[in-house]
Amino acid sequence: MPVKPSRGGGSQVDVDVHIQSNRKSDANATPNTNPGRNGADPLSLGVDPKPRNRALVDDTDLDAILPAPTVSVRSPPHPAPVLPVISRPLENYWIKSAAELPKANGEGFRLYRNRQYVDVPDGGVVLVAMEADTGLYRARFASELIPSGPLLLRDTDSGIWHPHNDFNAHTVPLTDASLSSLRTELDFSGVEPGSDGLFRHDGKLYVVIHEHSYQVMQDLDASNPRHKVWRLVNPKDPVATESANIYRASRSGETRAIVRNEQGTWVSILTGLRGGMDRNDPGPANPLYFHRPWLDSPGPSAVQPPVVATTRAQVKRYFAESTDQHADDFIARFGETTVAEAELKRLHLEFPYLDREITKWEIAYKGNDSAERARRLDIGARMRRLYKWQGEASEKVYRDGRLVGFRLDLNFGQRGNLALPVFVTRLSSVVALRLEGSTSNNLGNLFSRFSHIESLEVHKLSGKNNGLLSDINILAALRVLEIRETNLWLPSVGHEHFTGLSRLQELSLTNCSIWPGLRLIGMNELRVLRLRSCDLNLFPSGLTFLPLASRLRVLDLFHNPGLGDAPNVSLMSELRELNLARTGISQPPVGLGLANGPTQLEVLNLSHNPLAVAPSLRGMPALTEVDLSRTLIQNFPEGVTSELPKTRLDLAFTSILAIPDTVELRTAIELDGARITDPTSLRRLIAARRQTGRDVWLDREHPGSGINHWLHNVPATQHFEKIALWNALAGQENLTMMRRFAELVRTPEFRVERPLLQRRVWSFLEHFKEASLGEQEALRDMAVTEPSPGKMLDRLEEEIKNFDPTWQHQPPHHLPKRPKLD
C-alpha cells in the first residue's frame, strides 16, 4: 500500500527519477487499443533483450518521469479484461538514477511521490506495485497501471528484493520467537529421530527445533522428488487432525513451511504461496518479510503505524462494530486501498437489502417450536456477520496459506419441509459450506447463491438426497467435497454421481451408502480419494485410467469388505498413501514393488484382509509405514531393510513362522501375536527386547492365569509348598501383580527357556514373601507400571539388588550376534 510522504515539517527533496531506456521509444510503439490502460499497451511494446549497461547511462538523461497526474478511479460497468503478464528481465525495469532517492524504510521501500522503489540485485533499483489478487509486488514501468514485471520478494537480512524463483532458493533459519505459538508439550529428549529427522508418537509426526517439539504434516503440493516440504501446525487447529499426516490447505489453522537442509537442520522455506505468507503468520515471522503492515499485532499500548490505523479506521467507518481483527481479515483479502474501498462501498450499499431478506425469512416461521425459531435467528445472525467479514477464527478458510473467506455452517434442523435460507443478495465472503439436518426441498436455489464456493461438507443429511446429487453439479468450482453418513442413491442406473465437478481435487465419502457404482470419469484433477465404509462392491470406474491414475496421491478405501480384488496401481506414480484395510482382498495390488509403480509411496495399509501373499516393498525408498497386521501372510515382505520402512512395519497377528536372518529386529517392527515357532527367531526376539527395551513379539493370549503354568516338571513333593506360596500372594493386595506374572507365558522365554523362566519366577516370589513392606510396595508398583512382561521380570530382579546386594538371581541371557544384512 503506497504511503504518502509527509507534507509538513522536514525538508523537501527533489529527485529526478528515470527509467532505464531498454524499450523502443513511445513514438515507435504500437498505439494502445485497450481503453483504460493508462498509457502504452504492454503487449504491443517492443523490448530489446539486451539491457543497457548502467555505468554508461547518463544520469541527466531527459527521459525523466514526470509527476503522475491525478487519476479518478470509478468502478467500471463491466470488469476490464485482464491482460497476460509478459515475461521481461528484471534489468529492463531498472531506473536510471537512484542516487537522490530517500533511503529504504524498515519495510524495504524507498518512498517518493506516492511511489515505491526497491533495491534489487546487482545494484539496481526498480519501481514496484502490488498485485491486487496476490498481495505480492511486481516490478513495473512508470507508464503502466498494471505491473508487468517479475514478482519480487525481500530478503530481510540484506534488504534486497529478489525475483520469486523456485522455492528451493529461499530458505532461512528458524527462530524460537517465531515458532512459540506452535510448540507442543512433548519431550523427545533421549529419543532418536528417524532417518528423515521425524519423531513418531501416537500416530502423529513431530520435529524438534531448538529443543522444542512441533507437530508436522507433509505438504504434498509444495514437495518435489528432491525436497520434502513439511508444515509446522498447531495441534489444536483443524489442519492438524488429518490421520495420514498430510497437510490440507482447505482446513484452517496456523502453519509454517519447513524443509531439512543438507546439514540435517530444519529451516523455514518459501513455497511460493499466494499472498506470500503462511497461515496467520505475523509479518516479522515471515522468512522473507513481505509488506503486510496490517497483519502486525502490536500490543494495546503500542503506537499504530499510520497505514494500519487508517486502514482499520476505513473498515470501521463502514461497519462500526468491526474489531481490529475483522478489519485485518478484510484487508488481508483485498489489500490495496482502492480495491478495498470499492468492496467496502458495495457491501455497505447491499447490506440493507440482505438484512431485510434475512429478517423476512426469520419472521416467516409462525410455529410454536422455539428451537426452530432460535435456529433461524442463529443462522441469520451468522450470515449477517460473515457478509461484513466479521468471522470467527473457527470459520476462516485459507487457500495456499492466504485467507480467502469463511465457512458457513447451515443446520437445516429436523423439519425437512421448512424453507431454506435462500436470498438474492450474494454472500461472496462465504467460500465453504457445511450442511447438516433434514430437508425435502431442492438445494438448487441455495447452491446457485454459493456457486463460487470451493469446499462443501455434508454431514448426516437426510430427506431428499436425490436433490443433493442432482443439484450439487451447480457448484462447478468445488475443489473439496466431503460427505458423511448420507445415502447417495441415484434415481436410476443411467444417472451418475458428481458429473459436473471436473475441478474436484479431493473427494471424501465416509459411511455413505453409494448406489449404483461410483464413476470417476472426467475427474482428472482428483488428488485425494477417500471412500471409507461406503458398501462398495466394485472399485470406482476410471480409477486406473490416465490421467487420473498418474495424479492421484491418496487412495483410501478403508472398510469396504465387498471389494475382493485389489486395484492395479501400476500407473499411480504420484501415490503417497494407499489404504485397503478391511476390504477383503486376498492378493496385493498389482504394481507394488515395480519400477514403474508407486515409487513415492509412504503409507501402505493392507491390514485385516485375507491376504495370503505379502507385497514386495522393493523400489519404494520413501516408505514410512506399512501395516500388514491380521492377514494370512506366512513370510516377511521382500525389501525390508534396516531403514525401510522408516518408522513402522506392523506384522502383528499374522501367520509368519520365522524371521529371516537378513532382517534386523528393531523398534519399528511389530510382531505381537504372530505364529513364530522357530527357536532361533525366538531367541533373537529375546535379544531384541533387551536391546530396544520393548517387546517386538508377544505370543497370542493363553487361556488361564493360575499356577499350573509354573508347575511344569516340578517334583510332586514340592507341589504343596509351591501352591501354598502362590495362594499366600494371591490376595487382593497383590492381585494385579500376579496377573502381570501370568502374562509371562506370552514371552519368547516361555517358549524356548521355560525351565529357566520358571526358576526365576519362583525365586522372585519366594523373596517377595519374605521382603519388608517397603520393598514389597516398591516391587509391586514396578510390576504394575512396566508394560513389557519380559522387561518387568528383569527390572524386578535388578530392584531386589538395591535392597539386598547379596541376592543372586538366574544369570542373564547372552545376546546373540547381530545378524548381517545382504
Automatic annotation (TrEMBL):
Which ranges are annotated Polar residues under compositional bias?
19-36
> Where are the compositionally biased (Basic residues) regions?
811-822
Q: Is-annotated flag, keyword Repeat?
A: yes
Keywords linked to the UniProt accession? Leucine-rich repeat, Repeat
User: Is Repeat among this UniProt entry's keywords?
Assistant: yes
**Organism of derivation:** Pseudomonas granadensis
The lineage, from the top, is:
Bacteria, Pseudomonadati, Pseudomonadota, Gammaproteobacteria, Pseudomonadales
Which PANTHER family does this chain map to?
A: PTHR48051, RAS SUPPRESSOR PROTEIN 1 (PTHR48051:SF1)
Give the span(s) annotated as Disordered.
Answer: 1-53, 799-822
Descriptive protein name: Leucine-rich repeat domain-containing protein
Q: Which residues belong to the signal peptide in this entry?
A: none
